[in-house]
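Journal club prep — side note

Before the paper discussion, L.F. wants everyone to see what a predicted structure for a comparable chain looks like in token form. Sequence:
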Amino acid sequence: MLRKISRAKCLSLYPKFPRAGINEYSYHFPKTVNNYILTFKDERPRIRSIAVASACKKLLLDMGFKGVLFLADDSIPWLYRKGRNKPAKAAVAYLESSKVGKLFNGAIEIDVAEDTAFMRHLYWLTRTNTISSLVHFMDPRQEITGSICQYGNIHLSSLNKEADRKINNALKKSELTTIERC
């Protein structure tokens, strides 16, 4: 089950969220301790979509995060574009069935233990360029931020030393591998 939060409320509660500025030359990204790009062995998109969702879930739970928020880095609505292929159409239908309307540009909060469907659909929205913004996720304590890129890799940043320790401990139990760049 996902919960919607207005963009203004989310940014007032979670000011460390990465986001575009008021013009094309400004961007806010919080100060990080470390940055990771995490990938999988399997390159097949359909397999990768499932792997991204389950790996994110396991990684976040291993770090002790029960819930995370997702917010696009600009104010363009989530459903600004329609999907053209079957997985993208299914992702759009999923958001519509979750009451994410055509004008909604706020945050989506999920319970990590219960919801891998959202992350799987986010993979397809990003992979197929159906969502026009980069969507970041962050834990409510603002210790980490991350995103899923168009290649299906997980980009993760620690915002303090304790979070960096949690990431490294969780990665030891993970099948993910670290790469230098996409």
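L.F.'s comment for the group: The helical segments are 7-13, 45-62, 86-97, 117-127, 161-172. Keep this in mind when we get to the figures.
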